[in-house]
């Protein structure tokens, strides 16, 4: 059937060109362990994000490359994608060009700020309550508040990314999103009233969301300055840094402030800070962090976490963490607001 | 654990045979760009279908092969599958045998008519409003009307495909589906009444849906004759042709008529036609088309589209299109029925 | 961008180690055919489970390996995942370590009992009504009753697996699950009342579910003893065996008893048994089985099935089955409780 018309219709349906040999890299990781939290029964769950991804690079000549990346997120304890409202390719879905000018991508993924902040968080961005990535490292900020509840809080959909090349150790990263509605299912009164809310159901953004980060690497140290505005015009600013005091020891900090004055009349500001350390000893790596989040009108949140990762190979490690968080919302039916978290598990990359 | 009973149970669970080495080809494409439509804000979206597929061929000897293909469809701007009601393998999910007798497949995919029509549409079947594939090229016809709203309109589920070998340039393609219900969630009154609709919720087909196309290739030209009947017995007939007037220039046309007399008392017929051209100049390719659709009792639809694709490599191209469609349903809150469409994006195959 | 801070953040987000070359095996199978059942129209459907999986093994040295397996389940006739309430990786999602001590895994998959029972069922565990796997081979037992209706009935979520090495032909397999709730959407009165049901909506397990099987291989024969308790404390016990009377002929039996006394006041017991045979002749394989299920207070179920698989290669076979089941619940609108099942299809592994 190779030369038939239908075969042409089927196989040549992209600009009339023959399909070159496939160049897809499949990658991912599986992370699962046992978790015990205050007033909860022993659970099986994850510590890091679980990914199954497909990516590729095509050399276009003249230093230019086409790149793409599609990343499934899932939960190994139940076999599901991350949640019913999260997309199949929750990790990212982007395509673009990379070259001397930098990298330009289009699609959906972590914002420039959220991507850059990972390097300054002592638990390398894991979503576990033992880490700081989704709360204290970003001042409690949400990048996509007009998506349905439970969707991603650190990504932009419908967006363009530009990452500059590194020049004198400096790199500029920007993300800008369209105003397209993302299906929020409850109205947000904000500065409006319940009968005339500030953001209706399935509201579009009131301004184009953007995110920008600048990072500066200098010898053993690095600094980040970042700012972001989301679809409801909450703003976040962050400064962070790290220093490798020796090849085995990394110290880091971040300071973040969120401004919700566009949707709040009172209690507009949230401030957070954290300090952290990583210490590598043979196949083991110690992680430690402490931070606070102070939201106007709410109890101060204090989190202290320690972790240990032991590498069985370059692709597999076992881990354990202990963390305490005070001032966080209680998890019903418990009324405790000081929550201990203990975990023990395995992480395998492929 | 290789020789244990459980390992046998786990690994040998298909006809007791050892699993030969995997022979899966991963393929797909990512297409994303910026889109501006009349009275809509600038959006990020797709022009072509986005695919991530798995396929393979096994040589069975004597010229016979086993073939399979599973194709995920997704939206890179949001990371989701095509829509909540579309299946994971929206592209296709088929398995079968191929040999001197032709190709026989079972599963779900484009119907014989819809598959064949792609070669006679100037925008090679893209679902973008800049193309003609899902409307004027098929007379506004829907292949699967008893699936939930938003599902595929050009596929059969639960079907058998037979594609003949090419003989004297002629190929016959047929698809026939079972009558199984597909979960339509609203009743279709049709020639019935609201209290006694012609098709109930989750109705089975009233006759086996079928589709047939015959294509004839002769030197630089090709012709197609096609007919299809769907689950509610709407019928469509189409004749189409193209000629390569020189190696760089393809001219094409199609004429299609839909007959909905099985479910409509009046306004039963829809007629459409289109003419198109492709012109390749170096790495660039110009696409152009014009067509009309005249449905009884509705305003005449007129669409004119031009496009340009510039190949950066055999697998990557950038594109831009401009299209105007008159007489189409207005997209609320706009009331305009003359809609301009402008896009600019990138398509990368892997 | 290789050396930039962001690239580090993106690519090194797992314990700071470089990603080794990918070592993923993609595997799966596609099974589709035509099915005719009593009082139902001819349908397209499956006989065996349809899978698309990703798995890998990493040698950690000293005889230790890291292993993972992620397995999508889908329906080729409609392109969907198995059902709306089943997870993407319905087949399994597990990660663990394998070595001289045995195999230890964490995640979701078939229970030890359900995995082991496949070797003693004459239709090698297919979910088709022609087989016995999900009903008579397990005494009508359900491993996960607190998941939403339609979800898996032979798996544990949130569980740990341990498979011992084989010693003197004996292997011990165990699974133990956490008590985590799995989202049952209707309350189960059980020994409670409707106003105070025994298991509420989204109830956690009342005891840790566990499953254990012991298998003994000795020359041409094998025996299995198994016991399991699910989240609502229904218990199942099973004994099964097979013998290869010659290299082409396998005879097998199983006897199973389910005890639902934890949730039922009367009609607590279900007993089932089956006998089966497989006979290989050249490229063909005959399958046959007969069994009965006797649940207290319900009509006795009797099932007789014959099947034939003809291998076109090591990876592809065609099949046909005929089965009759008496005493099963009628499938509306039919009121018949003696249901014939006839199928004809193809199975291709990759």
- Structural domain tally of chain A: 1
Radius of gyration of chain A (CA) equals 22 Å
Q: Secondary-structure element order of chain A, as H and E?
A: HEEEEEEHEEEEEEEEEEE
End-to-end Cα distance of chain A, whole Å, is 37 Å
Give structural notes.
The structure is a homotrimer of 350-residue chains. Chain A is mainly beta and 350 residues long. Chain A has one domain: Beta Barrel (Porin). The first copy, chain A, contains 2 helices and 17 strands. Chain A has helices spanning 5-11, 112-117; strands spanning 25-37, 43-45, 51-61, 64-73, 92-99, 102-110, 155-163, 170-177, 210-218, 221-229, 235-246, 249-259, 269-281, 284-295, 301-311, 316-326, 338-349. Chain A has a 16-stranded antiparallel beta barrel. In chain A, a hairpin with a 2-residue loop joins strand 9 and strand 10. Chains A and B meet through helix 1, strand 3, strand 4, strand 5 and strand 6 of A and strand 1, strand 2, helix 2, strand 9 and strand 17 of B.
